[in-house]
């Protein structure tokens, strides 16, 4: 098997994997099964939690033609039993002669497939287009490493850092294009999270909406965090789907419950108090700041007190990108890795 052929089939498997859903509790995985004569006998990709893994989809299509074939898989076949059985065992039973995979499985609960395949006499090769496969599931892998959902904090503010005027009014700081961009990004997350204060004061719907005002095809779970009751009349109840009320002020407890529910990517849109709570706990992984070219001079700050009293303790962010959207500026940044600053 030449390197060129392996890269070609793995690239096809990566293309299939990209069709899978994200966010999802499981990674996006693709599989291509190729006969010894070079004929593709089956393809498959994972369609989301609770559905067959990519290898199983492809094996069911291949049937007896899988015997003696090579399976190209974007992620090391799993060796554990969850909602589905171990893919490594299924490949052995099907008589696959060789398994080529891209990324080793970073999930400690699922790893070990390569060893199981090798022990069963299957030729195993790993690391083919590993960087591309890793990039495809970067957010999933980060969540696995942290053992919690990833958190993206979104806020809108004036250039002087105000999220509302002194009388409490805040609609609309940014223009239509920036708000549409927010809804597009909101729809790519598992859940949108706010505090009870935001619900009581701003009465948001927390839905992902299209430019015409209609609901986006995919809606995140609407989550409210805090001890106060959420009125039945609140607009958060008006759209289809579940509204989850987490009766806690502890962000770690909230994220654990969401993780246990299968939530892997959280869009944090709470007010300055909730934002400060997550930031000081070290639980913000990305920041999207929508800055309006405007000044208020007074009013509510975008974030509450972070306990910083001297410039040496400033919380640095690394800029990922900056984009002008309509008449506003969107800054995407991430907290700096403190281990890097110490080098």
UniProtKB/TrEMBL annotation:
Organism: Humibacillus xanthopallidus
Protein name, UniProt field: Riboflavin biosynthesis protein RibD
InterPro entries reported in the protein's UniProt record: APOBEC/CMP_deaminase_Zn-bd, CMP_dCMP_dom, Cytidine_deaminase-like, DHFR-like_dom_sf, Eubact_RibD, RibDG_C, Riboflavin_Biosynth_HTPR
Keyword vocabulary terms for this entry: Hydrolase, Metal-binding, Multifunctional enzyme, NADP, Oxidoreductase, Riboflavin biosynthesis, Zinc
GO biological process, one term: riboflavin biosynthetic process
Pathway: Cofactor biosynthesis; riboflavin biosynthesis; 5-amino-6-(D-ribitylamino)uracil from GTP: step 2/4; Cofactor biosynthesis; riboflavin biosynthesis; 5-amino-6-(D-ribitylamino)uracil from GTP: step 3/4
Positions of the catalytic residues: 55
NCBIfam families cross-referenced by the UniProt entry: eubact_ribD
SUPFAM superfamilies named among the record's database cross-references: Cytidine deaminase-like (SSF53927), Dihydrofolate reductase-like (SSF53597)
CMP/dCMP-type deaminase domain span: 4-117
GO molecular function annotation: 5-amino-6-(5-phosphoribosylamino)uracil reductase activity; diaminohydroxyphosphoribosylaminopyrimidine deaminase activity; zinc ion binding
UniProt binding sites for Zn(2+): 53, 78, 87
Binding site for NADP(+): 156, 172, 198, 202
Cofactor binding summary note: Binds 1 zinc ion.
EC number: 3.5.4.26, 1.1.1.193
Top-level taxon in the UniProt lineage: Bacteria
Annotated family: In the N-terminal section; belongs to the cytidine and deoxycytidylate deaminase family.
